[in-house]
Every structure is written in structure tokens, then in C-alpha cells.
Design a protein that fits this description.
With about 170 residues, this protein is an all-alpha fold. The chain has one domain: nmb1532 protein domain like (Four Helix Bundle (Hemerythrin (Met), subunit A), Up-down Bundle). Helix content is about 70%, strand content about 0%. Helix 1 runs antiparallel to helix 4 and helix 3 runs antiparallel to helix 4. The two termini are about 20 Å apart.
Length: about 170
């Protein structure tokens, strides 16, 4: 059965998961919990960036839309990958100033990415006449293959953590 989730809805859902993980990190003082959150954040960011780079960005490129924005997004993704690598190497020293600075930098990069994607790139994709349902289906299929888990409308709710109330995805286009 074909997934009917739009690309817009799926990407916004992914962004909410990332934002929740960043908030969860900030709210805990326990170093083991922080380590778990950073590992989950790294995994979710890796999946998200792969979806963008392998499915979403190529769809926009085929339409000839937003080249400058896409170049900036690819550069941001590369910066996020470097920061994740640095954080994982520094994980044993979470109390060090360098680790805290890298985490702050990662948060700012992710927030900027979300703002740019939701405020500029998704509207460009919709204005270009891209079939957002088909693109959403392609993104869901790619995510399913990467994670080995099926994603659907029913399971797009973000799991409740100890720190955050459950967030439902917006209806979106």
C-alpha cells in the first residue's frame, strides 16, 4: 500500500523530532541521559540528511528550483556531520567547554536548517508544482529502507519522552 504522507508533512515531522531531542538534551543534567540523547540525535540527523540528499534535494534539482538554497543546505548538512563527529569523539568529556560549545553550535545549525527548510525550501518545492504526495511516498520508502521500520500516518507521532509531551505532526499540505 502506497504511503500518502506528503513530503512537507514528513519533513516537518522529522524536524519536530530533532527539536524535541535538542530540548531533551538541554533539560537533563544526567551525563548518561545526555549521551543517549546525543546518540539518538546523531542517528536521526544522519537519516534526515540522507533523505534530503538522496531524495528531496534531487527532486528539487530536477525542477531547477532553489539551487542557491540547496547549495546552502548541503553545506549546512556537511557542517552538521562534522559537528556530530566532533561531539561523538568528545562524548567522554561532556563537561568540557569545547563539548558544550560544539553542542550549542549543532543546535544553532539544526535550528537554522529547520527554519530554512520550512520557510524557504518547502514553499519553493510546492510552488514548483512538485508532487508532494509522491515525494512524500519516496521519502517514506527511503526512510523505511534505511531504518528497517515502516513509517505511516498512524505512527508518525513522536514518542513521548520523560521530558516532553507527545507532539502530533501538523496536518500540513
Amino acid at each position: 500500500m502506497k504511503n500518502e504522507t506528503s513530503a512537507h508533512k514528513l519533513l516537518v515531522h522529522e524536524h519536530k523530532k530533532l527539536s524535541n531531542l535538542l530540548r531533551e538534551y538541554e533539560k537533563t543534567d544526567d551525563s548518561m541521559e545526555k549521551e543517549d540523547v546525543v546518540q539518538n540525535l546523531a542517528m536521526e540527523l544522519h537519516i534526515h540528511m540522507m533523505l534530503e540528499e538522496q531524495v528531496f534535494f534531487p527532486a528539487l534539482e530536477r525542477e531547477g528550483k532553489g539551487r542557491k538554497l540547496l547549495d546552502e543546505s548541503i553545506k549546512q548538512n556537511d557542517e552538521i556531520k562534522v559537528l556530530i563527529d566532533q561531539l561523538q569523539r568528545l562524548m567522554a568529556d561532556q563537561d568540557r567547554k569545547e563539548y558544550q560549545e560544539k553542542m550549542h553550535e549543532l543546535k544553532k545549525c539544526v535550528e537554522h536548517h529547520i527554519e530554512q527548510t520550512e520557510g524557504k525550501i518547502l514553499p519553493k518545492a510546492e510552488d514548483a508544482g512538485i508532487d508532494m504526495k509522491q515525494l512524500g511516498s519516496d521519502l517514506c520508502q527511503a526512510r523505511d529502507e534505511m531504518t528497517g521500520k515502516k513509517i505511516s500516518e498512524e505512527n508518525m507521532a513522536i514518542p513521548r519522552s520523560r521530558m516532553q509531551p507527545e507532539v502530533q505532526p501538523d496536518a500540513g499540505p
